[in-house]
Design brief:
nine-stranded mixed β-sheet, six-stranded antiparallel β-sheet, globular
Length: 532
């Protein structure tokens, strides 16, 4: 039996990107409740760099990058290539810049800044080599006072106990700022350890939620609407296996509590779905604890499949690289899951492996088996169970590219995204772990070092993700749609609970979180009755 409680104006389910939407609602005087399944706020956003792909926004103008939105629109049209999503794209482009203008009026958000991250499809019309991504400034954790323990830790901290110091950066800064701004409105309330069970529907209209808190079912009403912003279903083994075989969710870097509760509740209320076969895929480098961590910007070595052959530009934008792993595994008859990252001592000395400040040193990598070491390529081929002749041919071909500086097969190092990693200062190998750092000679392309200095190494790459991107189908106001295209009155969705406006692609850094904030904003404007 459920306990009935007083009504709110707006209920937001989830405390990642939806927390910004909750602030927007509460700042308009709407009594707003955020229900969060776990004991901390932030979801997958807290794990992120908090990039927001917001073309035309004020931080870009301040940086002297006056976007031509028609160029950006042409870029989106080209890479998404789906006319059914064009209205969503237009709504997104308008909302992002407007939202930043509004947020920057609140001292908690201060001024966002542009970060030069190139668009991910360099050859598409309208692609920008400097990108359209903006970031929140860091935040002194002490400024949050009693709210500091409520903000979810970063993934390196949760996984490896990494001490990130007194400043919150990236997603944790955004969440800390949004939480403080939300609660300071005087119209916002947060309930932790409160899980969505179902939506309350009366006469075809969503009028509230039924949640479970401390073992008790509670029914809470919402006068204006319910915004589902509870992430995707990345950790739901059943749904992943059904829609995204062979993946089952164990390798996801999404927040562990993201099991599709909001998706299931929306479907039960009559919602249509789309893109359930999709995720924001990333390559995952398997660490000594046996689980992968988001890996991007490979600067050396090669990835080979089960046949010992190279198959991709390893520095390619992460979503594209991971999609290619899944596609080739499912279509070629050759195993690509796992893939093997093969490199040599020169590469290890220059770049290290993984994120040494946050993970064990090379010795633990070897002891755990996450990193394999051999005195010869032939021995390494045996350790990773690939044909030596094929691996030898692949390495010899790659070494030829290293000498000329041109990757004739996969063109590594040719796009603005790749070239961004020319200038990354990597973490060196730890000399205390018997991996003494020594300078590598200059080569024509810093992303193409030859693999010829023994010993040789192999690490494991698997397809991970930062969340699923399929979900409830929505319109330009983030209203959830039925299969006939009509909106479900009172129900909205954003973030990874919503089917992505970008379809099967990832246009630029900050598209996932940008979408969550933009469509949460549009949902609240509709609930507040202030849409055009």
């Amino acid at each position: 039996m459920s306990i009935n409680e007083d009504a709110y104006d707006v209920i937001v389910v989830g405390s990642g990107g939806g927390l910004v939407g909750a602030y927007v609602a509460a700042s308009r005087g709407l009594r707003t409740l955020v229900v969060e399944k776990t004991d901390r706020v932030g979801g997958t956003v807290a794990y992120s760099g908090a990039g927001l792909w917001f073309p035309g926004s004020a931080p870009l103008r301040r940086a002297g990058l006056g976007d031509d939105l028609e160029d950006v629109r042409a870029y989106l049209r080209s890479v998404v290539d789906d006319p059914s999503r064009e209205a969503l794209q237009d709504a997104y482009l308008t909302a992002g810049a407007q939202l930043i203008d509004e947020l920057e009026q609140n001292p908690w958000f201060r001024s966002f800044v542009h970060g030069p991250v190139p668009d991910y499809y360099a050859s598409a019309p309208g692609a920008s080599p400097t990108g359209h991504t903006v970031f929140p400034p860091p935040l002194d954790a002490a400024d949050l006072k009693e709210h500091r323990p409520l903000v979810r830790d970063s993934l390196p901290t949760e996984r490896f106990g990494f001490d990130e110091g007194p400043l919150l950066s990236g997603g944790r800064a955004l969440i800390g700022r949004a939480l403080s701004a939300f609660l300071e409105t005087g119209h916002g309330e947060l309930r932790l350890n409160t899980a969505l069970e179902s939506l309350v529907v009366e006469d075809g209209k969503v009028v509230g939620v039924e949640v479970v808190s401390e073992g008790e079912r509670v029914r809470i009403r919402a006068a204006r609407g319910v915004l589902l912003a509870a992430g995707g279903f990345e950790h739901n083994r059943e749904l992943r296996g059904k829609h995204q075989p062979p993946l089952t969710g164990e390798w996801s870097d999404g927040a562990p509590a993201n099991t599709g509760d909001a998706l299931r509740a929306g479907i039960a209320a009559g919602a249509d779905t789309d893109l359930l076969d999709e995720a924001w895929f990333v390559p995952g480098l398997v660490h000594p604890d046996g689980l992968p961590l988001f890996h991007t910007g490979t600067r050396g070595g090669i990835w080979v499949n089960g046949g010992g052959e190279r198959f991709v530009n390893e520095t390619r934008p992460y979503d594209q690289a991971a999609h290619e792993i899944v596609r080739l595994h499912n279509t070629t008859g050759v195993s690509h899951i796992p893939a093997h990252w093969v490199f040599d001592q020169r590469q290890l000395d220059r770049d290290g492996i993984g994120f040494p400040p946050a993970t064990p040193g090379p010795e633990q990598w070897l002891e755990s088996g996450a990193l394999k070491k051999a005195d010869s390529l032939e021995e390494l081929a045996g350790l990773i169970d690939v044909p030596f002749d094929a691996l030898k041919r692949t390495v010899e071909e790659f070494n030829g590219y290293a000498r000329t500086g041109v990757d004739e097969r996969f063109h590594r190092g040719e796009t603005p995204w790749d070239q961004m990693f020319h200038h990354i200062v990597p973490f060196p190998a730890d000399p205390r772990q018997n991996f003494p750092a020594k300078p590598a000679p200059e080569w024509p392309n810093p992303l193409l070092l030859p693999i010829d200095e023994a010993p040789f190494y192999a690490a494991t790459i698997v397809p991970s993700d930062i969340g699923t991107k399929g979900g409830l189908r929505t319109d330009i106001h983030a209203r959830v749609l039925r299969p006939d295209g009509k909106p479900i009155d009172g129900l909205y969705a954003t973030g990874n609970t919503m089917a992505a406006m970008s379809g099967h692609v990832y246009p630029g850094a900050g598209t996932p979180i940008g979408s969550s904030l933009a469509f949460g904003y549009l949902a609240v404007l509709d609930m507040a009755g202030t849409t055009d």
